[in-house]
Amino acid sequence: MSQPRVPGGDENALELPCGETIAVGELDLGMREYDCDCGEAHAVVMDVHPPERFLPDFLVDVLREAIETTSEEMPEFDTPHLLGVVLEEFPEAVVSHDASENADVGYAMAWVADFDSRRLHEVVVELVVELMEHAVSHADDDEALSAFEQEMVEFDVSEFVEQYRAERDLEAEDPYA
Questions:
Q1: Would residue 3 count as lying in a domain?
Q2: pLDDT digits (tens, 9 = 90+) for 36-53
Q3: Sheet of strand 33-35: strand arrangement
Q4: Exposed, middle or buried: residue 140 (CB in 10 Å: 0-12, 13-18, 19+)?
Q5: Which residues span the domain enclosing 102?
Q6: Out of the domains of life, which is the source (predicted)?
């Protein structure tokens, strides 16, 4: 878990979930994974990455319409909200870094996960499905809940992520072009 800043501490360093430490400048805007000295690849997400990195456009639109945020700084559902859900579910596996005071890095927030970018993608999809199921359960419509649950029984998160990543071509130089 990320440590609170202490006077005299290095605000330009980030302790990763594996215990390694890196300079925050090593994280660049195009990075999706960090190949760590620990031998593992860690998923990297920044506030400037669109939520469409993980979810189709139409679903992001639905989430933005359905979810009311309480943040004045981020009034619209976006990537920080997705990573907040991940951080809440996996507090020991994700560290965050507030770089809002550091104009040299190009991002305001960064998250680094103990798992690789593909596993993070699966985690995001799994948590959004749980969020959707919770929302449907509050609709007081047993038929809608039953239909949703039936659809989810047939939904393969791993296959969805595989197809979505291939479609978005996350290895391309600019996957959002």
A1: no
A2: 999 999 999 999 999 999
A3: 33-35, 41-46, 109-113, 94-98
A4: exposed
A5: 17-170
A6: Archaea
